């Protein structure tokens, strides 16, 4: 099963404090990135605390875990579980899977200079965006690309034009190999969010659970 937890800052009358989150979070899960703004640090800490809470729900001892990096820098747990986290503009999401690798990405639907991203899309993807030049259309494809790259542990080593996400099953063309994944959309109002899971006979169910920060 794949378990998900979502944090949406809009439902909170008062956001948690950074120091409080640091005190709750196991040091192993501290973000490595240096953030210039406190709100960016806060949402990063929240996403990792979601991971901690989901692991606790599965009865996993954080003290016995370690995080190491895969070939292209993807963080991996020293257990049979896989995880993926994403955050954007006050929303954070974490997925934990006992059915293999998983990837997730989330973006706030907003206006952007779409033409500047033409080289990030395949010919057919760009044609679709031109037919429907809305932020929704753009981020629908963008989050698919990011979630598929995360599924297979790639970062920006693969040009985005080599990531084809026009259909329900996406493909990465890299290293003379085709890496595939199946997309699952998660509904968050005003955002676009996609998970990506390995190609199997059936799409695994994603259970969204409530967790206390």
Automatic annotation (TrEMBL):
Gene3D superfamilies: 4'-phosphopantetheinyl transferase domain. It comes from the Bacteria. The lineage of its organism: Bacteria, Pseudomonadati, Bacteroidota, Cytophagia, Cytophagales. The keyword Cell membrane does not apply. Belongs to the P-Pant transferase superfamily. Gsp/Sfp/HetI/AcpT family. Residues 101-179 form the 4'-phosphopantetheinyl transferase domain. GO terms for molecular function: transferase activity. This is 4'-phosphopantetheinyl transferase superfamily protein.
């Amino acid at each position: 099963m794949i378990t998900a937890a979502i944090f949406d800052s809009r439902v909170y009358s008062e956001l948690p404090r950074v120091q409080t989150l640091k005190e709750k979070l196991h040091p192993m899960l501290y973000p490595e990135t240096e953030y210039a703004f406190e709100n960016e640090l806060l949402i990063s800490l929240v996403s990792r605390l979601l991971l901690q809470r989901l692991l606790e729900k599965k009865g996993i001892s954080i003290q016995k875990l370690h995080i190491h990096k895969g070939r292209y820098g993807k963080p991996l747990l020293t257990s049979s579980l896989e995880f993926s986290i994403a955050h954007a503009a006050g929303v954070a999401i974490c997925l934990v899977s006992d059915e293999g690798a998983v990837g997730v990405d989330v973006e706030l639907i907003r206006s952007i200079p779409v033409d500047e991203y033409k080289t990030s899309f395949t010919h057919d993807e760009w044609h679709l965006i031109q037919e429907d030049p809305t932020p929704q259309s753009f981020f629908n494809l963008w989050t698919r690309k990011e979630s598929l790259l995360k599924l297979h542990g790639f970062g920006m080593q693969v040009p985005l034009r080599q990531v084809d996400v026009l259909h329900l099953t996406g493909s990465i063309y890299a290293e003379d190999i085709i890496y595939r994944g199946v997309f699952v959309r998660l509904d968050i109002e005003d955002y676009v969010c996609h998970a990506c899971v390995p190609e199997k006979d059936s799409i695994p169910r994603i259970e969204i659970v409530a967790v206390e920060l």
